[in-house]
């Protein structure tokens, strides 16, 4: 890093700390004592529910099938997404205690000595869901009707990326509209939704840019995958300069083309017998909500009439 880079990084950290401090001080978020984990208060929920409802209204013409899933998924389903190959550092699993009285006594003794006791737990064949669309691919099978299928899925996501940036949480919510169909219908879903998403986010009084992006693939092989993803324009992000014009803007939503990635691993086929393609658009609910607080202040009653109207607040 050059001195200029270091200064910029320090300034960015300061901007993040300032926003985090303001959200905590104004009673929007509650610090739970672990980076990227927060309790949410009434004002946060009011705005985030309004964001979610506006997102749903904006996609009403999709007539998507509503599906909701728990925040954990079976290991077998997680396996088929190949997530552990690409994002091992973000993945997290559930463990449970399966031992007998003796093992329990050993656990308590370790705890008494101030040692870690979670090592006494066994993997429970459950993973925390890192992207809310994951569970759907195991459900649609090999007879996807002509025109494809479109789903409305909102829920909890967990990614092991602890950070003091209030825009980077470990546990958060995304609302996805997922299409599974032909190569053409998947691309049309991804591309066709971008202008409306942009207009929606702009109607919230947030400055938005749509930029080609990549997922944070792990390791050296990951760098190659990330480059391919950008070159093939598989991912677009809706970014906003939440920390001002001098710093990298933050993604508050994304539009992703998976091509046959999930179709191949889950054995999904369209009416013509071909491997299905898929695409999803995702609204990051906490990030949009916090971007609103950052842009307009933490009291929604004082936001301008047009912003409140866009959110039906
Ligand atoms: P980033 O580039 O910031 O790491 P991402 O590319 O991994 O995000 P996606 O996988 O596209 O994000 O997830 C969809 C949306 O979920 C993002 O556009 C963002 O709004 C939200 N999101 C992703 N990661 C987080 C996080 N750690 N905390 C809060 N929201 C997040
Ligand atoms: Zn998805
Ligand atoms: Mg990204």
UniProtKB/TrEMBL annotation:
One of its GO terms (molecular function) is ligase activity. Its EC number is 6.2.1.n2. The keyword Ligase applies. PROSITE patterns: AA_TRNA_LIGASE_II. Gene3D superfamilies: Bira Bifunctional Protein, Domain 2. Residues 155-305 form the Aminoacyl-transfer RNA synthetases class-II family profile domain. It comes from the Bacteria. Keywords: Ligase. This is Amino acid--[acyl-carrier-protein] ligase. It comes from Curtobacterium caseinilyticum.
